Amino acid sequence: MSRISDIFSALQTQGKTALIPFITAGDPDPQMTVTLMHAMVKAGADIIELGVPFSDPMAEGPVIQRACERALRHHVSLRGVLDMVIRFRLQDTITPVVLMGYLNPVEVMGVTTFASLASQAGVDGVITVDCPPEEAGGEYTSALQNEGLDPIFLIAPTSTPERITMISAMASGFVYYVSLKGVTGAASLDVQSVENKLAQIRSLTSMPIGVGFGIKDAATAACIARVADAVVVGSALISIIEKAGDDHGRLVEQVSDLLSGMRAAIDGETADIK
Hints:
Structural class: alpha/beta
Number of strands: 9
Radius of gyration: 17 Å
Mean pLDDT: 91
Distance between the termini: 23 Å
Shape: globular
Order of helices and strands: HEHEHHEHHEHHEEHEHEHEHH
CATH architecture: Alpha-Beta Barrel
Strand order of the largest sheet: 5-4-3-2-1-9-8-7-6
């Protein structure tokens, strides 16, 4: 059992849905990342998704693209991100950490080296956006699993039953349902469509399902929590970081307020349903 499996098992026993916030490592500056990670856990996060900054984040909308640019101006590298996880683990050995990023930095480091260093740092799972299961089925997934890391794959609204089955067979920890046909932070959620797709996914896998893209506030989070095992929020948090600028105290307070509001809304909804 991984930390990710453990947290989903515990939440299921409690009848709760996981809250997974996403921030880009190094945004607004490298010194704030670990502080924000701890603040998010205190505000109710169950798993932290930490973005590895990349120059061409093709799945991201403009908000997270700008976050990557800010982090890269501080020269935040993949090794730097792993150092942040190491610092986080000095105080928190329980909360799972999932890295979300793109394949190029991993290939530059070397797949086997990356998997080993990530595991040593205390990473629990990896989402590699531009590495579909057709590409990850050999060395990459094996390297992650050999180090006890959960490979987490994306399922799209257009994914066929055959593809969902293939993804679920390769993934561990949870699967990530991308609720929108588009980039992060785009459009508005059609909760009924999400519910219908999740019913199909559940018929093909018993793995927990996280839902992300388009979850912007407590009300949306509560609606998704009624049908998902985890609610992932990213662009709404990054927008707060962007607007706060150098006011780090205000930044931590506003990030905490958004997440604690989502936590309360999620728990209020799920208490009646699960």
